[in-house]
Design goal:
This protein has seven helices and 14 strands. It is of the alpha/beta class and about 280 residues long. It has a single domain, classed as Metallo-beta-lactamase, Chain A (4-Layer Sandwich). The strands form two sheets. It has a seven-stranded mixed sheet with strand order 6-5-4-3-2-1-14. It has a seven-stranded mixed sheet with strand order 7-8-9-10-11-12-13. Strand 9 and strand 10 form a beta hairpin. The longest helix has 11 residues.
C-alpha cells in the first residue's frame, strides 16, 4: 500500500515563494495498492495533478471519499481528469444519507453559477454514494469505517484497511472535547474521544488536521481545526505508528513548517511527520 500527498494545505490554495517546499494545494491524498483501484481522499486543488497522473496510468475505476463539501475539499472535481475519460468510472462518496442527497450537494457547486460546468454535463460519468457517519463498508477491496468529526457543517473521518495495513484520514476537525475535558486536560478521554481512539486504534498512518498551534486553537475553537499536541495525544492513546500533521494553515510558511518538523523530529510512539505535497509513504504488505 502506498499513500501519496497531492495537496496538504487548508482553507485556500496558497502559492508563492514561502510555500514551495511544502506546497500550496488544498487537500488531496491517494492510496494505491497493487490489484486494487486507487482510493482518493478529497478533491482539493491537488486533485488536478493527481487526475492527470491517474489518466496516464489508464485506470478504469477510481473511488473518491470526501471528508465534507467545503470548497477547499471539492474545488478540483471539474478538473479531475478521470471524470472525462470514457473508459473510467469515478465513484464519489460523501457525507449524505443517500446517493440522491450526495448528488444534490455537489450540484450546488456545479450549477452554472459558481462554476461554468453544470453537474448534468458530467453527472452520467459519476456514481454518487451517500456515506452516513458510523458506517462500515467495502470499496475496491478496501475495508472502510467512518466517524463523525467536529467541524462546522459536519465532516467524516475515515479508516481504510487492506491486507493488514491501515490508514486514517482525519481532516477538518477540532478536538473532540472542551479544553478542560479529556485528553487536552490530561484527563480520561471523553466519550467522543473514545470513539475516535477506537477508529484509529493501531493504524500504521494517521493523517490528521493540525492547522493551528494551541494558542490559536483556543482563540478559534469553533473553526473546527486541531493542533499538533492534541493530534499526537490521540495517536499515542491509540498506539498509532506514524502521525502526519495535515491541512496546514495558509499562513504557515515553509520555514514555519520546517520548525514544526524539527520540533517533533525526535518524537517516538508515535513517529511524527509534517505532510509535504509530493511526498509518498510506503507500507509493505
Amino acid at each position: 500500500m502506498q499513500v501519496s500527498f497531492w495537496g496538504v494545505r487548508g482553507s485556500i490554495p496558497t502559492s508563492g515563494f514561502d510555500t514551495i517546499r511544502y506546497g500550496g494545494h488544498t487537500s488531496c491524498v491517494c492510496i494505491e495498492a497493487e490489484g486494487h483501484p486507487p482510493l482518493v481522499f478529497d478533491l482539493g486543488t491537488g486533485a488536478r495533478a493527481l487526475g492527470r497522473y491517474l489518466v496516464q496510468k489508464d485506470v478504469e475505476k477510481v473511488y473518491v471519499l470526501l471528508s465534507h463539501t467545503h470548497m477547499d475539499h471539492l474545488y478540483a472535481l471539474p478538473y479531475f481528469a478521470p471524470v472525462f475519460q470514457p473508459n473510467c468510472r469515478v465513484h464519489l462518496g460523501l457525507p449524505a444519507e443517500s446517493a440522491e442527497a450526495a448528488r444534490s450537494r455537489v450540484g450546488q457547486y456545479l450549477n452554472g453559477v459558481f462554476h461554468p460546468l453544470r453537474l448534468d454535463d458530467i453527472g452520467s460519468r459519476l456514481a454518487f454514494h451517500g456515506v452516513p457517519a458510523g458506517e462500515e463498508f467495502s470499496v475496491g477491496g478496501y475495508q472502510v469505517a467512518t466517524l463523525r468529526m467536529v467541524h462546522p457543517g459536519g465532516t467524516l473521518g475515515y479508516r481504510v484497511q487492506l491486507g493488514g495495513r491501515s490508514v486514517c484520514y482525519l481532516t477538518d476537525t477540532g478536538p473532540l472535547a472542551k479544553p478542560d475535558e479529556g485528553l487536552m486536560a490530561n484527563k480520561a478521554p471523553t466519550a467522543m474521544e473514545l470513539d475516535l481512539i477506537a477508529l484509529v486504534q493501531g493504524v500504521d498512518i494517521m493523517v490528521m488536521d493540525a492547522m493551528f498551534d494551541e494558542d490559536e486553537y483556543l482563540d478559534k475553537q469553533k473553526w473546527g481545526h486541531g493542533f499538533p499536541e492534541y493530534t499526537v495525544a490521540i495517536a499515542a492513546a491509540a498506539k498509532v505508528s506514524t502521525v502526519v500533521f495535515f491541512h496546514h494553515s495558509p499562513d504557515s510558511t515553509d520555514d514555519m513548517l520546517d520548525a514544526l518538523s524539527q520540533k517533533w523530529s525526535a518524537h517516538q510512539s508515535p513517529r511524527v511527520v509534517v505532510a509535504k505535497e509530493g511526498s509518498v509513504m510506503d507500507l509493505e504488505g
